[in-house]
Each structure stands twice: as C-alpha cells, then as structure tokens.
Model the fold of this input.
Amino acid sequence: MRMLIVTILTVMLSLEGFTPASATGGAIPDYAKWGIIAVKETQTKYNVDILDYKHIGRTSLTADQSREQFKLWVRAKDGKQFAVYVNVDFNPSTQQLKKVQFSESDRH
Done:
C-alpha cells in the first residue's frame, strides 16, 4: 500500500511539472561538473578542507578549449586559511578535461 501511495504521488508531481530541479530554483549549472573537479583536485593537491566556493566564470580560449575559473577558500590541517584559484581547461565540444591549474593567495 505504501509503495502505491509513493507511486501515485510521484506521478501526480511529475504531471504538475514538479521536479527536484524546479524545487531548488533551476537546473544544474553548466559549470557544476568542472566545479566538482576543481574541489576534488584542490583537496587532493593541498590536503585541505574547503570552506567556501565561488564560480568566477567561463572564458573561451580557442575553438576547442574553454576555461572555468573558481576561487576556493580553504583551511589547511595546521589551521592556516588561504584562497586557491583554480583554472579548469576543457574541450567544450567533447567535454574532455585538458588540465587543472592552481594559484594561491592569502587574501579572502
């Protein structure tokens, strides 16, 4: 019986146009995939906790290479906090990752 109720509610909500994306205010942004890579690569390279995350923007470098830029505010294991700017270069047509570059700053 419980499964039937869940199924009926799911069908009703989908007919109403209610989806998790619409509940949160929109679709997943284009840069989300690259943001996940920026966070994981930063954690791996620096062994830090991510405190804050900001998408700076996308730049088209060539016909087959674009760059997503992110600023991550991080905390090292010794308590030191600093910013890491991350450039994620990729092919916009194939969605293939090209490279990830990092630069540090002590400014928030």
About this structure: Residues 29 and 67 are 15 Å apart (CA to CA). The first strand starts at residue 49 and ends at 62. The chain is about 30% helix and 45% strand. The helical segments are 2-15, 20-23, 32-46.
